[in-house]
Amino acid sequence: MPQTTLTLTPHGPALAPRYREAAVPPRRSTNPYARLFAVPGAKAFTAGNLVARLPMGMFGVSAVIMIAGRYDSYALAGSVTATGLAATAVVAPWTARLVDRYGQARVAVPATVLSVLGTLSMLLCVRAGAPAWTLFVCAVATATAPNTGGMSRARWAHLHRDDPAARHTANAFEQAADELCFMLGPVLAAFLCSALFPEAGTLVAAALFLGGVLVFAAQRSTEPPVAPRTSAGSPLRAPGMARLLGVFLATGAVFGSMEVVTLAHVDGPVAGPVLGLQAAGSCAAGLAYGRVRRSAGLPACLAAMTALMTLPLLAAATGSLLALAGALLLAGMATAPTMVTGMSQVQRLTPPSQLNEGMTLAVTALLGGIALGSATGGWTADHVGAVYGFAIPATAAGIALLLAGTATRTAKARLP
Question: What stretch or stretches form a coiled coil here (predicted)?
Answer without folding.
Answer: none
